[in-house]
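Protocol step 4 of 6: structure prediction from sequence.
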Amino acid sequence: MLTNWLCRIWEIPDRLAQFGQGYDAVVAMSLSPAKDGTVGPTLRSVIKLATEKVPDSAPRLIISNRYMVMGRNLCEEMVAEALRQGVDRNRIITPVNPRDPAIRNTATEAKFSSDIVRMIAPQDRTPRLLVIANHLHMRRVLATFRKNAGGEVELFWMSAHDKSAYTRDVYQERFWHPLFLLMYEVAALTYSKLKGWA
């Protein structure tokens, strides 16, 4: 009960484009993988929500984080999951080198995605990007996108709310329970602002 109440205070309501407007791209924001480096249930819920928007609402899906666990690369594992969800590989945009150490956290994912959508959008209007993230991660995600995109990208967002997806099978243990993730996100957002990332 207390956890749900605290989560609702922290969560941000979704903002979607008007019917028929669409997006230039969708970005699936990463979370911790499972202990073996594969995509776990919490991250899978983010990818599933993102893939539901491709290609009907957006032509491209952006995935980028290079996080490594047990020799597995998170970007490559997320791409594999998107393919299992039915997205055509040609619609997925990743860094040329998915293991690029420069793309290692929420802030660098936001910068990469913002740069990409500016390049692929029509030049006669503001690019439109739909951000998909975990419901507790979203507040920090949006802060980093606003910092990186400025007013040059119109941001929309939708949170993955599948609380049944939380599990002990997660490499970064702070992600196994909503309350622990919430406490981490409060601290991480403060740290990101101090570092100038958000």
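Step 5 (inspection) to follow. The helical segments are 2-10, 41-51, 74-84, 106-120, 138-149, 178-195.
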